[in-house]
Amino acid sequence: MHDIERRAFMKGAGLGALAFTVGGAEVLLTPGEARARSVPFRLLKENEAETIEALGETLVPGARAAGVAHFVDQQLSVPPGEALLEARILNVKPPFVNFYRAAMAAIDRASMAQHGGRRFAQLSTSEQHAFVGLMRQNKIDGWQGPPGGFIYFVMRHDAVDVVYGTIEGYESLGIPYMAHIVPEKRW
Amino acid sequence: MATHEKVDVAIVGAGASGSTYAAVLAKAGKKVVVIEEGPDWQLTDLISSDIWGRRIKPAGAPFLLEGKNPFGYAYQAGWGVGGAALHHFANFPRLLPLDFKIKSEHGRALDWPINYSDVAPYYDKVAADIGMSGDAKAEEIWRPTGAPYPMPPMKTFRHGEVWLKGFAANGIRMVPNPVAMNSTEYKGRAACIYDGWCHIGCPIGALANPPATYLGEARKAGAEVRALSTVTRVLTNAQGSKVTGVEYFDEKGERQVQQTSVVVLAAFAAHNPRIMLNSATDKHPKGLANASGLLGKYLMCHFASGTNALFDEDVQNHMGTTGNQFMSYDRMGKTSHNGAFGSSLIFCGSALKTSGLGGFANARLDLYGPELHAFMKRAARGFSRIGAFGEELPNIENRIELAGDKDRFGMPLGRIIHSYDQDAVALWNANFEEGLKIARATDAKEIWSARGNMPTIHLMGGTIMGTAAGNSVTNSYGQTHELPNLYVAGPGLFPTSGAVNPTYTIFALSLRGAEQLAANWSTVAG
């Protein structure tokens, strides 16, 4: 059998559909669909989600629409052993929500101190870009919280995941996704 | 608490080494129970996605990661059947004769208690058992002859081939990389289709991960696997002369005791010493098999020096396998680089994905925003990289200890303390310099070193083998010097780390140990 014929694109692979709660029922949506339908966040507060969206969009254009905040929120709501966040691989200690809460608070605290009381999401695009450039290098004076460079590293992975880690993301870069075949037998 | 009927062997961990022991002993007619901390993954769980693939790695280490170069636990370890070998890249170079006698030949580090010739027959047996592709003849410019690999080399792709002129210009001979993958169908398992998803578990069985090979054989021979069960202690008799069982906590968190004639500790290299330290009794106050005080000592990692390049052609970097296409032993000599000491393994041609730690989005970590997107567009077409693993020498300060904090079962967390010394840093730098020289001799349009924090790859040592109880934890088979029916398996046995991916040697040493155990069963278990 030809190699290409043996491949079958697995619907939903890449990032795919996750379980979101809509009207009391669990439905399978992509994070981008969840955002478009304004699905309520499970754990994140509105201002935390807003900061994640703004930071994600600054790191990787398209992350906001791809639902980076809904992705992170949904993953924070499941047991750590089921979580797909790169934070897991980077040895962040569960529950992962503690890290994200501390990280977003640190960003907003520093932003407000530097920009006349404005939170990170309220900065202009160029201000956000400059802020992240300093945060990445741990060069923001008076920083309190997880190291800025590590926050950059973790959140950059999340934003890359939702923009470039999906089948649609591969397509946007012109890369064949090439999921493996679904095995008919276990071994 | 429940006490289970006595079995012949309790194996802790269903990774590469535990699966090998389970297969050999179950086929020898022994009643085998494999106790595994993580889930009982099926091949159908292995979704082709870097994101979903994170499920087969741990979430939350039972270790405090300390030292100047803290160990990158979660990326290296496994969680569930297959262990770390469920997500390994199946690069199967072997240690060379010079790796076994560094102390004798250079007056530093440690000697192994065995030679290459003791392990070589097991390298060949493993290759035949689980399937390997490569060109043994080509490798024999560097090593003694052995059996040919059962399958021809894998296909190669442009993103590996573009580097060959750079290696040749620097006098580095590259040969097909030996891999535990099927270039053709093998023993009823499918041939590889070169989709590059090896690193999150191969669902078609073309890559020789344990569930598709030894663990599958063990189950067919009657071995039982108890998943989601965490071993906390090895139990000993009142005299402290033999082990009698293991204590573990099941999926519901209930304490269980499995009585057994023999225990094989085949968990991740960091877990075995943690369990042995936690098993201390009045007869073994420093932990089991620790008269030497070396239990948990001499941890070692590999460090990679990567060189990145952008080529002005479509190199199809998504094609192939996560395993490499080509490799070279030309820098395996311990003094290959002036001013540095230790072996280096050179490789190229690993297939690339976009996201995750190994994804090419990380090739320019300084970029974000529109600049990152522009890079991603270029890299999708023309990015490729090479690398060299360097050897970390054994240092007694790199170690595992028990911490004061405890996990949910009341077991003390471990502290993994790891720092690289100047030898390691010098070798890391030398390999970066050579990488740039190689890259300059290619047609690449941009080249740069992949420098960042010094990486900690693989984990070896902690339960090293040696000639006697005074200088080691086990003998060359993994049998502890002090408790004859307690075996340790895996890379923890390595007295030195070499520079090659450890899994092939793990399988070979495990096969050697398991066959010795089976052949001496009545003496060991009686």
How do you describe this structure in short?
Chain A has helices at 3-6, 31-36, 46-59, 68-76, 86-89, 96-114, 125-136, 148-164, 167-172, and strands spanning 18-22, 25-29. Chain A is mainly alpha-helical and 187 residues long.
Query: Which structural class matches the secondary elements of chain B?
Result: alpha/beta
Q: Which percent bin holds the helix content of chain B? A: 10-25%
Helix content of chain A: 40-55%
Major β-sheet profile of chain A: 2 strands, antiparallel
H and E string of chain B: EHEEHHHHHHEHEEEEHEEEHEEEHEEEHH
Number of strands of chain A: 2
Distance between the termini of chain B: 27 Å
- Unreliable spans of chain B are none
Amino-to-carboxy terminus distance of chain A: 19 Å
Low-confidence stretches of chain A: 1-13, 182-187
Tally of extended strands of chain B? 17
Proportion of beta-strand residues of chain A: 5-15%
How many helices of chain A?
A: 9
Q: How many distinct helices of chain B?
A: 13
The string of secondary-structure elements of chain A, in order, is HEEHHHHHHHH
Q: Please outline the major beta sheet of chain B.
A: 7 strands, mixed
Rg of chain A, Cα atoms, Å: 18 Å
What's the SSE blueprint?
The complex is a heterodimer of chains A (187) and B (526).
Chain A (H helix, E strand, L loop, with lengths): L2 H4 L11 E5 L2 E5 L1 H6 L9 H14 L8 H9 L9 H4 L6 H19 L10 H12 L11 H17 L2 H6 L15
Helix pairs in contact in A: 3-4, 3-7, 3-8, 7-8
Chain B lengths: L1 E11 L3 H12 L4 E4 L27 E4 L6 H4 L25 H5 L9 H15 L5 H4 L18 H4 L2 H6 L5 E2 L37 H7 L3 E3 L3 E7 L6 E7 L5 E11 L5 H8 L21 E11 L15 E3 L15 E5 L21 H13 E9 L7 E8 L5 E6 L4 H19 L5 E4 L7 E4 L25 E3 L14 H17 L1 H5 L1
Parallel strand pairs in B: 1-2, 1-8, 2-5, 3-14, 8-17
Antiparallel strand pairs in B: 4-10, 6-7, 7-8, 9-12, 9-15, 9-16, 10-11, 11-12, 13-14
